[in-house]
Amino acid sequence: MACAPKVRSMILNPYNPLEPVDDPALFFGQEAAFAFFRQNLVGAAHHHALVLIGRRGLGKSSVARQLRYQVDDRYRVAVISLGTYEISSEEALIAGWIEDIRLSLDQAEVSTYRLPEWPEDEEASLRDWFDTVYLDIALTALRHRHLLLVIDDAHLMLQAIQRGALPADWLHYLAGLLEHHSRLDLVFTLDAAFEDQTLTTELMNDPALHFRLAELSLADAERIIREPMDQACCLYEEGTIRQILDWAGGHRFCCIRFAACSFAAPRNGISAGQSLNTI
User: Which of 52, 49, 36 is nearest to 205 (CA)?
Assistant: First the structure.
């Protein structure tokens, strides 16, 4: 791999297979998924969650983070990354949600000064407070806009219910929130291993609101490999991109992982091809 005249050690590796893509300039492909969300998020009330289903590594979390750039201006998106949570109780989960909602509204430059603090009355129903106080005030702050809660890695809630960390009726409670608030919408990203549970769960049992994430086209996979390198003013060794595509196909995680190894190879005193052969 060749680089423009820069000190190589000062060029950050633009590939990180372990982190979802936040920057829209570094996200490529999945137009069909975004078309699905734009088709279904048109200002109407929903009584079911929209569900993005896919195998591990196809980019569900990255799609979730790109939704704020893809849906129309009627929606304010709050991404709730359950993979960063320790789901030990319903109280802990709601506490995390209200913090993520506040942060997302701040980033969208929505006034949050009226959002209520955690209720002091320990005898009060936390569910009722979140439903009739917190969400009411949050939606009022949004005026006519919708609040789109994108629950990333939603299968972690299913697992928490199975082990007793969340009550068995938690998803029924979430369905009630959609009934109560016409400008609240839910999107779940779900590992494909849990797809069978969607049709037996009230909140997710509308197959018309399911989308199965596919692997990238080879053209989009090549863009994922090539364009971050171009932005870093570097070039791949001849044949490296073809080799990555032969091995990774359209699997997003594998494309990024192989590209990351190729970028780092010269720093480790080996060629990109040698680096790929060790993976």
Answer: 49
Same domain, 143 and 202: yes
173 and 228 part of one domain: no
Tell how strand 2-3 and strand 234-235 pair up.
antiparallel
Tens-digit pLDDT profile for residues 39-62: 999 999 999 999 999 999 999 999
Same domain, 54 and 152: yes
Question: Are 162 and 268 within one domain?
Answer: no
Q: Which helix (H) or strand (E) holds 239?
A: none
| Averaged pLDDT for residues 149-155 | 97
Task: Name the domain boundary from 161, 177, 212.
Answer: 212
SS3 content of the chain, % helix, strand, coil (to 5): 50, 10, 35
Q: Are residues 42 and 180 in the same domain?
A: yes
Q: Tokens at residue 202, please? A: 């009230």
Query: Which residues touch 258 (CB under 8 Å, ≥6 apart)?
Result: 225, 244, 247, 248, 276, 279
- 10 Å CB burial of residue 9 (0-12, 13-18, 19+) is exposed
- CA dist 224 and 199 (Å) reads 34
Please, how many CA atoms are within 13 Å of residue 216, restricted to the half-sphere of its CB?
26
Count of domains forming the chain: 2
- 151 vs 82: CA distance, rounded Å: 7
Please say whether the beta carbons of 210 and 53 come within 8 A: yes
This prediction has a pTM of: 0.87
Segment 24-43, tens digit of pLDDT: 988 999 999 999 999 999 99
- Do 260 and 274 form a contact (C-beta atoms < 8 A)? no
Same domain for 177 and 266?
no
Tell whether 12 is covered by a domain.
no
Q: Which residue range is the domain that position 248 belongs to?
A: 2-6+216-277
